[in-house]
Amino acid sequence: MKEFVVDDKTAKKYRRKSLIAFIIFFALLALGWTGWKYLNNAPRDGGIRGGLQKPLRQVLDLNEEVYSGLFSSKRLVKEYPRSKAAPRARVNGDVGLDPSLFDSASWRLQILRANGDTLSLTLDDIKQLPRYDVVFNFKCIEGWSQITWWSGARFSDLIKKYHLEKEAGMKYVGMATPDEEYYVGIDMPSIMQPQTILCYQLNAQPLPMNQGYPLRLIIPVKYGVKHLKRIGTISFSNTRPPDYWAERGYDYYTGL
Ligand SMILES: Nc1nc2c(c(=O)[nH]1)N[C@H]1C(S)=C(S)[C@@H](COP(=O)(O)O)O[C@H]1N2
Ligand SMILES: [Mo]
After folding, report:
1. 66 and 1, same structural domain?
2. Comparing C-alpha atoms, which of 188, 177, 175 is closest to residue 221?
3. Are residues 233 and 147 in the same domain?
4. Of 23, 124, 159, 218, which is the most exposed, with the fewest CB atoms less than 10 Å away?
5. What's the CATH code of the domain at 127?
6. Which ligand is located closest to the Cα atom of residue 92?
7. Full-model pTM
8. By alpha-carbon position, which residue is closest to atom 10 of ligand 1?
9. pLDDT score recorded for residue 8
10. Can you tell me which atom of ligand 1 is nearest the CA of 146?
11. Is the CB of 216 under 6 A from ligand 1?
C-alpha cells in the first residue's frame, strides 16, 4: 500500500491558507454584524411603530424613481381569456370592511375636488360610464397570484366625464374606505393607465361584501395592497397621501 505523505512545505502552505480563510471569515462576520447594528439603530421614517429605517426607505424611494421613470401608460398588463379566470377569487384583507359599520343604502362615492367641493356619486352614476372588463393575473406581495375577471369603469373616463382635469394634473390620488380604516396613495400615471378601473363586478356578479361591495379599485399595474376594497372617498394632491401598508414599512410605489 502506498502511503500518502504530506511534506513540510505543503503542510505549511495549507496552514497559512486556513489562517487567511479564518481571518476573512471573522472580518466579514464583524462587517455584517456592524451593518446589521447600524441598520437597526438608524433613524426611522415615522410610520406606525416608528416606521421603516431611513436607509431602507431610501432604497425603496430609489426603486420608485427608477420604476416610475420606466413606467409607460401605453404598456398594458397581459390579459387572459375569461375562461382562464378563477371561478372563486381568493379573499385577502378585511381592514375597513366591518359589515356592521356599513350601510349600503347611504353609500356614495365622495370625490373631493380641488376647489373644496365634494362630488357625490351613486353606483348607478359609475355604471353610466363605459364598462370595461379586465382579466389579469392579480398578484399579492404575500406571494400568491390568481387570474381573475373584474368589470367597472375606467378611472380615466370618470376624470373626463366629471371634468376633473385640474385634479388629474396633480401628482397623486388618495383613496380611503368609508370608515377610513384602510387607505392608499397612488401616483397619477398609474391610476390613469387604461386598465385601472373603479370596479363593481367580479365574474360578472356584484362584488361580494368581503371583496369591496359596492365599489373597489382594480389597478393591474400594482400589487394587491393598492386595490382598495370599498372606496368611500377619492382625493387629489401633489404630496403623497397616507398609505396603510407604506406606514407599516412596505414599499409605497409597489409597481409591477
Ligand atoms: N379595504 C381593504 N382593501 C384591501 C385590503 C384590506 O385589508 N382592506 N387588502 C388588500 C390586499 S393586501 C389584497 S391582496 C387585496 C385582496 O383582494 P381580494 O380580497 O379581492 O382578493 O385587497 C387589497 N385591498
Ligand atoms: Mo395583498
Report:
1. no
2. 188
3. yes
4. 124
5. 3.90.420.10
6. 1
7. 0.91
8. 225
9. 86
10. 21
11. no
For 4, 55, 173, the CA distances from 212, given in Å and listed in that order, are: 75, 35, 19
| Closest C-alpha to ligand 1, atom 19 | 91
CB atoms within 10 A of CB 21: 10
Residue 68 domain-assigned? yes
**Side chain identity at residue 183, one-letter code:** Y
What is the extent of the structural domain holding 11? 1-41
CA angle 39, 246, 109 (to 5 degrees): 175
| Residue having the nearest C-alpha atom to atom 21 of ligand 1 | 91
Residues 37 and 57 in one domain: no
**Index of the ligand 1 atom closest to the CA of residue 230:** 1
Instruction: Starting from the CA of residue 182, give the closest ligand.
Output: 1
Give me the pLDDT at residue 74, please. 80
Whether residues 10 and 116 fall in one domain: no
CA distance 27 to 18: 14
Ligand 1 and 188: CB distance under 6 A:
no
Tens of pLDDT, residue by residue over 12-24, are 888 899 999 999 9
Evaluate whether 197 touches 150 at the Cβ level (below 8 Å): yes
Same domain, residue pair 144 and 193? yes
Q: What confidence tens digit (pLDDT) does each residue in 101-113 have?
A: 999 999 999 999 9
C-alpha cell belonging to residue 24: 476573512
**Percent above pLDDT 70 for the chain:** 99
Any ligand 1 atom below 6 A from CB of 217: no
Pairing label, strands 197-202, 205-206 = antiparallel
97: CA distance to ligand 1 center in Å? 10
Q: DSSP letter at 177?
A: -
Tell me: pLDDT of 135 over 80.
Answer: yes
